[in-house]
Hints:
Layout: E1 6-15, E2 22-26, E3 39-44, E4 47-59, E5 63-68, H1 74-80, E6 84-88, E7 109-112, E8 116-125, E9 132-137, E10 140-145, E11 151-155, E12 160-163, H2 169-174
Parallel strand pairs: 7-12
Antiparallel strand pairs: 1-2, 1-6, 2-5, 3-4, 3-6, 4-5, 7-8, 8-9, 9-10, 11-12
Amino acid sequence: xxxxxxxYLGKIVSKxxxxxxxxxxxxxxxxxxxxxxxSVFVSLGNNLVPFFIDRCRLHKSDLLRIDFEEVxxxxxxxxxxxxxxxxxxxxxxxxxxxxxxxxxxxGFTLMxxxxxxxxxxxxxxxxxxxxxxxxxxxxxQLLIPITDEIITKVDREDKTIAVTTPEGLVDLYxxx
Length: 176
């Protein structure tokens, strides 16, 4: 399985018991939908390795307690400590309305209320404190913040995102 066909689920952050159980810090708003998983992909080196699950349940609010079939001792758990977990993109819950996953809006056109077509979403930069649309308009790259105040409508059928950008932001890029 390729990472590009998966989404990041979380990270193994600690051991739970001497029998190899581990705790995973989930990267989700709805941890309860992942409490009955049968398997996950564990990132080991440059590979995603399938690991099957004997038992999986929520621990506190956003931790998942996992008992893997292949991990039955503390030393087994030590070998996967800190590893990242992934699931296939097909397991993502469907979003509707103006909510979206970053990977699904690549190629969408950003339509600004004032400037009209301001470009095509090439990627999303989520390594900054504020996630940004990376938009290409001709030879120019625009960085547009992803906020509820700026996004007014997501149209999956037409592959457009309507935005109302702050005054002067688009001019910074297109009129320089």
